[in-house]
Amino acid sequence: MKKAIFLDRDGVINEVKTSRVKFVNRPDQFFFLPRVQEAIKRLSNGGYELFVVTNQGGVGLGFLKPGQLEDIHAFMLKELSSLGATIKEVAVCTHAPHSGCSCRKPEAGMLLDLSERHGIDLASSYMVGDREPDILAGRNAGCMTILISDAPLPGVKADFVFPDLWEASLFLVDDEHHTHLGT
User: Is 143 labelled a binding residue?
Assistant: First the structure.
């Protein structure tokens, strides 16, 4: 079985609620966070299958059309691919918040589905996110978890905390983290 990294999108890969953009509703509103493209290339070349798992409730609420979301993801994947960074698949929950679905994080549905279809060993995999629902989804799926934050968030119990995806990629691809995990 393969090991994977499941990446949240907004706040991990791209800017959201910044001075440049509040929400991403079009490709021209999609801005990669610093060094994210390098980090994704490093991770995809470092022996991991990479997946994006993102809640996009704006579709379910009618603020964003499915075609707009597809355009945003096509833009993201094209930009990453042009640098040799590979995302295997983008999984999206488009249900409105509180709809009770099994795919919306903190539920583990997207991770479990990807794991089953792609032969992923969840216990050897990581969920990387910037909010509690991301970390809970990873835990619910049986993954190790990484919080992207300048400091631990109260009540959020991630296995590891890094300020950005680049720092997390250094940890994940370098051999030094194996001593932290006892391997």
Answer: no
Contact 119, 113 (CB under 8 A): no
Instruction: Judge: domain 4-170, CATH 3.40.50.1000.
Output: yes
Structure token digits, residue 12: 């991990």
| Confidence (pLDDT) at 92 | 98
Length of the chain: 183
- One-character DSSP codes across the chain: -B-EEEE-SBTTTB--SSSS-SS--SGGG--BPTTHHHHHHHHHTTT-EEEEEEE-HHHHTTSS-HHHHHHHHHHHHHHHHHTT----EEEEE-SPTTS--SSSTTS-HHHHHHHHHHTB-GGG-EEEESSHHHHHHHHHHT-EEEEESSSPPTT---SEEESSHHHHHHHHHSTTHHHHHT-
Active-site positions read 8, 10
Note the pTM of the prediction, 2 decimals.
0.93
Q: Residue 58 contacts by C-beta under 8 Å, 6 or more apart in sequence? A: 23, 25, 64
Closest-CA residue to 41 (of 164, 183, 170) = 170
**Helix-helix angle 36-44:66-82, to 10 degrees:** 70
Check whether 130 is labelled as a binding-site residue. yes
Residue 93 counted as an annotated binding residue: yes
Give 131-168 pLDDT, tens digit per residue. 999 999 999 999 999 999 998 889 899 999 999 999 99
